[in-house]
């Protein structure tokens, strides 16, 4: 009798373990990691460059075919921008209309493709105004001459090396580690010298604010087998990739295969 009861209890325990295992696997299927790409843009340069144009961006995003676009748009500006686009077929929201990658590419593609735009920019108008005022003050401060000189030399060096590659605004080169390293020649001194002083507008600080919103989106859709396309100015790309590589729940895709796919023979 005791043996029979023990066998019954053991069977029940085994079934319970199997049930728990099935529930856990449903919550976290290992084969449904999300895919993430980071697309570096050149903002107004897309309107003047002969290769990395808005038409090129349109073809590239079609080829990537994302489920979500994590955009360099402040969350508090997105609704107005989208409502204006639905109403007038154009963007009139002051911040968003500065970025042709959105006004001429992403928003028009919402009519033809099935993706969701998630606004993730940590930018605010007060932050930007404060940053501009502080940088102006630093540039005029006689006690900060060496700091300002170091900052300017970093910019000049970065620009010079970038031009020497012969690949300015080349979408292939922009999506390489070499490009990120050249950007860092200017951005690291800027960050080291002024990040704390510039408050929320400092380089590290604003990237943290951007990435906080990106992380929230990635967490919300964790293990759902979705494709995320992060679209930001190309200077942010290296910083984001360093953070994204710390995650073990996503597959970071390289941009090159998608660039190859739209390459004109």
Radius of gyration: 24 Å
Largest sheet: 5 strands, parallel
* Assembly form of the protein: single chain
Helix-strand topology string: HEHEHHEHHHHHEHEH
Q: How much is the average pLDDT? A: 91
Number of helices: 11
Helical proportion?
A: 55-70%
Instruction: State the shape.
Output: globular
User: How far is it from the N-terminal to the C-terminal residue, by CA?
Assistant: 80 Å
Low-confidence stretches: 1-29
Strand order of the largest sheet: 3-2-4-1-5
Q: How much β-strand is present in the residues?
A: 5-15%
Number of strands: 5
Q: Outline of this structure?
A:
With 265 residues, this protein is of the alpha/beta class.
Tell me about this structure:
The protein has 265 residues and is an alpha/beta fold. The protein has helices spanning 2-27, 54-64, 75-88, 100-109, 125-140, 145-164, 171-174, 177-194, 203-220, 237-244, 256-261; strands at 34-41, 68-71, 116-119, 227-233, 250-252. A five-stranded parallel beta sheet has the order 3-2-4-1-5, sandwiched between helices. The model is unreliable at 1-29 (pLDDT under 50).
